[in-house]
Amino acid sequence: MSDKVLVVTTESIPGKEYEVIGEVFGLTTQSKNVIKNIGASLKNIVGGEIKAYTEMMAESRDTAIDRLRENAASMGADAVVMMRFDSGSIGQDMQSVAAYGTAVRYIK
């Protein structure tokens, strides 16, 4: 059911009227294993993209959106408008990502 919840970054959904239900969130905190952290440290010396961390951020983003949809679906929402991301580091090897927005229900 949550996969049917539309998520948009816009304030409105063209052609849809809706009522606001409330705020919704999707949160995750992830880290890479020791081997990938060592590889990232070595890459930090020479410079360039650290692909293991880029992959971790993409996975974190996807997980946060999935959890946002689940939160919205549990409230009976049809969509989430004004979705945004926030992220931050916890320690040196953990990354936290939050997806948040406003859950809405279509007016029939």
TrEMBL record:
This is UPF0145 protein N0K80_00610. Pfam families: YbjQ_1. Belongs to the UPF0145 family. PANTHER family: UPF0145 PROTEIN SCO3412, UPF0145 PROTEIN YBJQ.
